[in-house]
Amino acid sequence: MKPQKHMILFVDDDPLVLRGFQRSLDDFSDDWETEFAVSGKEGLECLSKRAFDAVITDMHMPSMDGIQLLEEVSRCHPGVIRFVLSGNTSDAQILKSTHLVHQIIPKPSEMEKIYKIVERACRLRGLLSDPMLLQIINSIRTLPSVPRLYQQLLEQLQSETVSSQSIGKIISQDTAMTAKILQLVNSAFFGISEPVSSPQKAVAFLGINTIKSLALGIQIFSGYQNQSDFPLSVDVVWKHSLQVTKLAYTIACQLKFNAQEIEDTRVAGVLHDIGQLLSFQIPGYSQHVRLNKNGQPVLGTEYEFLGTSHAEMGGYLLGIWGLPNPIVEAVTLHHFPGLQADSSQPDPLTALHLANGLINMCQNEQEETPEAYLDLPYLQKLGLLNHLADWVTLTHKILAEPV
Q: Mind listing the pLDDT tens digit for each residue in 229-239?
């Protein structure tokens, strides 16, 4: 059956620009149905009449600019993915829009480039069938950071001796800060030819002044506000993610991944449970989802209550934020790597699946039932089962080390 077309709304105050869009969209008519609005007000009228998957708006428009429009879209139509077109790379509004915009696209851009960015995000919507979850995740502006790391970041940024290395090191340890900084640097707006998966490289590229503006002025990072009635702790998520990251990194090195694959593996480890931070926003989650003895959600109860899991939710968020494909795929499929389209060679997903499964298995003292934690047919296909005993020993060593 032919997939349903995605509904895309373009908003720009220049009729010539809109006509140019309309002419260049002929090649994509099989995948997109489009509408065009010449003002923010007209765009909101379109949104009130029918459902759209995404809105692509110019930044600078009279009466209602792109940011004001997206404020209204976020408030009234939270399920819509939000993109901004801007041609001014020094525009302070770009930084102020990071809490509203899922991705920023440079203006002008060829329609093929716009199509690839927007279509990738729209296809990821298929990971989530519940409109409520789409609305919650699309509305996310900040995620909770580990209090100690958040405080360290603020102190460093106000220090006279601050360096990009020290800032990058702090950010790279925190799930929320890593995701947000990679969202910004991987925006096509910055014109980087290759995806950036290293928080340290992202900080070096953006510069200390930009990071200061983001963290201190615009406050794209946030401290953790404890919810006593919520079963999950951001500290538990953080500790588990660091243990998984360490093990996944070691496995990636042992399997002789190349430098980029090793870095993707490390970052995917930090981010793999970002969906658990999203679950803080879901009404009724704490009453329906059970945790195991180590404080991790029982996957089956997530599917029963949500129809999905933290893995798919996290993958969707990272995807619409524009993070590199290997990281999005690893986060999305880390429980079910056999669903990967091409699984002929070990890759970051492989290392992440192994690390997450082994950490959980050994913490729960269930080494006699690895099939409950690992996709053994997938690992057998890749010829990795004979390494398991050594990796179990390594896992116990990592769990015994202080975090």
A: 556 678 888 89
Angle between helices 388-400 and 348-363 (to 10 degrees): 60
Q: What pTM was computed for the model?
A: 0.89
* CATH level 3 topology of 234-400: Hypothetical protein af1432 (1.10.3210)
Instruction: Please say if the pLDDT value at position 227 is more than 60.
Output: no
**Domain locations in the chain?**
6-127, 144-223, 234-400
| pLDDT tens per residue, range 58-92 | 988 999 999 899 999 999 999 999 999 887 645 56
Contacts of 7 (CB under 8 A, 6+ apart): 32, 33, 34, 35, 50, 51, 52, 53, 54
Q: How far is CA 44 from the centre of its chain?
A: 27
The pLDDT mean for the chain works out to 89
Q: Where are the alpha helices (DSSP H) in 50-163?
A: 66-76, 92-96, 111-124, 131-138, 147-157
Q: How far apart are the first and last CA of the chain?
A: 50
Report the alpha-carbon distance of residue 8 to residue 120 in Å, rounded.
13
pLDDT tens readout for residues 6-15:
999 999 999 9
Q: Is 187 exposed, middle or buried (0-12, 13-18, 19+ CB in 10 A)?
A: buried
- Expressed in percent and rounded to 5, the helix, strand and coil fractions of the chain are 60, 10, 35
Give the model's pLDDT for residue 225: 57
CATH 3.40.50.2300 applies to domain 6-127 = yes
